[in-house]
């Protein structure tokens, strides 16, 4: 078991999912409530990482971060070094890669908040922003939590993008999935088996938490609605 | 004028709401009455700022509200199913409006008699309690105008009667002008000082509810307020405040509304028609029409009897009366009603 790789992986997953939540809350709100006619194009872009091969995404991210791109140059003047093959570069790529897993559950949860509650809040003199925190978030925390946990779990398991963007630097960009690949390459099957089992168990536990929580929340919500209707 | 609302709103599919509403200063309760689909709720939502106008303006107490966001209009809006926040307890619902102190929550809760359920969740309340909590939440904001969208429709019949009189008392005592949407004429008569009748996206008539309901000025109004029989009649003769009309193959007598119109919509309410087996020897009722029963159908606690008296006439009688008269399809019957029970709308 490569503990350094595990630490790198967890650090990457935590950083990525925190950043993703900061992005997914406003973006999910926009996706759920915007009436812009070209909104579907943005939705398609957000969903792209689900269908694109990680190598394709990794390739473009690498190009975007390179010294010839404005983004790469900007970062270099800011940080003094380039983005590719650094932990920060890996975070940038992971955020893009897991974006749909954070945005989609959040947007779906926001969209299922009944409009009358939002309007009732407005009619009580409460601003859009405050309504977001006092009505929309409390009624969709299952979706927000699902987005958070799914992006965490998805980042744990990413391989192609990490390989393309991060390289394979121990302690910096070598994650568990890359470590498993290395060990199999060097015919070190028993170590690969241990690490694989660890990743499998972690992923299973996380997904069980997601489904368990959602079920409980749905149960309560349905129960309350039912009682309200009676 | 307290409220001037000139509303022009178009929807996809051709539906258009074009309503002009004036509410004079003073704490009156104004009923927005009409059949479903008439555009009543849309008008309310436009006044609240929840719908944008395509054209027109909303002016409240001299302030132009047309482009003011809903938060900045001091309106208390009661939603049809109350929209109590399910994730907040009753006390938190009532205190939801910005910066409401616990004293205000206590005061409005006591006023609406919900102070014993403050710790409960909305889902644990009865329909009547939910309505009172929603009203308390609205009043805690100290609104200058109340908009109530079908405030009684979410309640069952037994609760409804009780809550209706409570609401009427509350509206009279709080001194805040209100617009109440309803399609129920009992609500209109109990709650309203004034009534605006909407049909097909327009306001067709306004006045005291009693007057609008009994003296409709348009055929649509007559239908909307639930007058069962609305038929066309031609003047045959008029003398001494009485007009004789030819309606279909029948002739009937009505009070002369004046003017020189020759054609009228003849409106007769079902409950004003009495049924008799044979022709009475003497009666003060001017109209005795012989007819054949066409159809008998239950209508709530009453029975609706359709009779062909030369035109289609609807009578509403009690079930007991229907049984005593041995009413059945094809039976001969006399329909009796006073001249004053016939309301005439000039046909233009």
Any key phrases for this structure?
heterodimer; A: 230 residues; mainly alpha; MetI-like fold; 11 helices; B: 348 residues; alpha+beta; Rossmann fold; OB fold (Dihydrolipoamide Acetyltransferase, E2P); 2 domains; 6-stranded mixed sheet; 9 helices; 23% helix
Q: What is the topological layout?
A:
The complex is a heterodimer of chains A (230) and B (348).
Chain A: H1 3-33, H2 39-51, H3 54-65, H4 70-79, H5 87-111, H6 115-123, H7 128-139, H8 141-156, H9 160-166, H10 176-185, H11 189-229
Helix pairs in contact in A: 1-5, 1-8, 2-5, 3-5, 3-9, 5-8, 5-9, 6-7, 8-11, 10-11
Chain B: E1 3-10, E2 16-23, E3 29-33, H1 40-48, E4 55-60, E5 63-64, E6 75-78, H2 90-94, H3 102-111, H4 127-139, E7 145-149, H5 157-174, E8 178-182, H6 185-191, E9 194-199, E10 202-207, H7 209-214, H8 219-224, E11 229-239, E12 242-247, E13 250-255, E14 263-268, E15 274-276, E16 287-299, E17 302-308, E18 312-318, H9 319-324, E19 332-337, E20 342-346
Oligomer: heterodimer
Q: Identify the strand order in the major beta sheet of chain B.
A: 6-7-8-3-9-10
Count of discrete alpha- or pi-helical segments spanning 4 or more residues of chain B: 9
> Outline of chain B, from the CA principal axes?
globular
Describe this structure in words.
The complex is a heterodimer of chains A (230) and B (348). Chain A is an all-alpha fold. Chain A has a single domain, classed as MetI-like (MetI-like fold), CATH 1.10.3720.10. In chain A, helix 1 packs parallel to helix 5. The longest helix of chain A is centred in the C-terminal third of the chain and has 41 residues. In chain A, 37% of the residues are buried. Chain B folds into 2 domains: 221 residues, 3-Layer(aba) Sandwich (Rossmann fold); 120 residues, RNA polymerase II/Efflux pump adaptor protein, barrel-sandwich hybrid domain (OB fold (Dihydrolipoamide Acetyltransferase, E2P)). In chain B, 23% of the residues lie in helices and 36% in strands. Chain B contains 9 helices and 20 strands. In chain B, the strands form 4 sheets. Chain B has a 6-stranded mixed sheet with strand order 6-7-8-3-9-10, with helices on both faces. A 5-stranded antiparallel sheet of chain B has the order 13-12-11-14-20. Chain B has a 5-stranded antiparallel sheet with strand order 15-19-16-17-18. The radius of gyration of chain B is 24 Å and the shape is globular. Chains A and B meet through helix 6, helix 7 and helix 11 of A and strand 6 and helix 4 of B.
């Amino acid at each position: 078991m490569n503990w350094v790789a595990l630490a790198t992986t967890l650090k990457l997953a935590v950083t990525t999912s925190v950043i993703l939540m900061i992005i997914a809350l406003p973006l999910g709100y926009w996706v759920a409530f915007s009436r812009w006619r070209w909104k579907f194009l943005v939705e398609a872009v957000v969903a792209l990482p689900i269908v694109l091969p990680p190598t394709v995404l990794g390739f473009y991210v690498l190009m975007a971060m390179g010294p010839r791109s404005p983004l790469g140059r900007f970062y270099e003047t800011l940080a003094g070094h380039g983005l590719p093959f650094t932990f920060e570069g890996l975070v940038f790529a992971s955020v893009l890669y897991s974006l749909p897993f954070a945005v989609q559950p959040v947007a779906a949860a926001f969209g299922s908040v009944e409009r009358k509650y939002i309007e009732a809040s407005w009619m009580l003199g409460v601003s859009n922003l405050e309504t977001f925190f006092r009505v929309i978030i409390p009624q969709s925390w299952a979706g927000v939590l699902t987005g958070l946990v799914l992006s965490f779990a998805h980042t744990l398991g990413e391989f192609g993008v990490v390989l393309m963007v991060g390289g394979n630097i121990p302690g910096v960009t070598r994650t568990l999935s890359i470590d498993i690949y290395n060990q199999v390459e060097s015919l070190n099957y028993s170590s690969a088996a241990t690490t694989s089992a660890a990743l499998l168990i972690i992923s299973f536990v996380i997904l069980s938490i997601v489904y368990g929580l959602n079920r409980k929340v749905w149960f309560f919500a349905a129960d309350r609605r039912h009682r309200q209707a009676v | 004028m307290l409220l001037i609302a000139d509303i022009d709103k178009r929807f996809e599919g051709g539906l258009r709401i074009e309503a002009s509403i004036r509410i004079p200063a003073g704490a009156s309760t104004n009923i927005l009455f009409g059949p479903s689909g008439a555009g009543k709720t849309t008008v309310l939502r436009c006044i609240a700022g929840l719908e944008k106008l395509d054209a027109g303006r909303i002016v409240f107490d001299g302030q132009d509200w047309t482009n003011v966001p809903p938060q900045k209009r001091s309106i208390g809006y009661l939603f049809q199913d109350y929209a109590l926040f399910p994730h907040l307890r009753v006390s938190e619902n009532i205190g939801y409006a910005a910066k409401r102190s616990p004293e205000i929550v206590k005061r409005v809760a006591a006023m609406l008699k919900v102070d014993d359920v403050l710790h409960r969740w909305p889902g644990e309340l009865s329909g009547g309690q939910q309505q009172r909590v929603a009203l308390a939440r609205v009043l805690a904001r100290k609104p200058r105008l109340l908009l109530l969208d079908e405030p009684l429709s979410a309640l069952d019949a037994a609760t409804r009667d009780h809550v209706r009189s409570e609401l009427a008392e509350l509206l009279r005592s709080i001194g805040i002008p209100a617009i109440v949407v309803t399609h129920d004429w009992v609500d209109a008569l109990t709650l309203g000082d004034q009534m605006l009748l909407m049909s097909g996206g327009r306001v067709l008539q306004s006045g005291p509810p009693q007057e609008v309901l009994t003296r409709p000025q348009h055929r649509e109004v007559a239908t909307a307020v639930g007058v069962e029989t609305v038929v066309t009649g031609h003047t045959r003769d008029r003398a001494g405040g009485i007009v004789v009309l030819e309606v279909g193959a029948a002739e009937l007598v009505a009070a002369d509304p004046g003017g020189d119109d020759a054609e009228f919509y003849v409106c007769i309410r079902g409950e004003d028609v009495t049924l008799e087996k044979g022709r009475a020897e003497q009666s003060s009722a001017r109209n005795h029409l012989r007819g054949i029963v066409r159809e008998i159908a239950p209508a709530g606690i009453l029975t609706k009897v359709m009779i062909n008296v030369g035109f289609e006439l609807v009578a509403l009688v009690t079930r007991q009366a229907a049984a005593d008269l041995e009413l059945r399809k094809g039976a001969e019957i006399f329909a009796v009603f006073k001249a004053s029970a016939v309301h005439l709308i000039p046909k233009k």
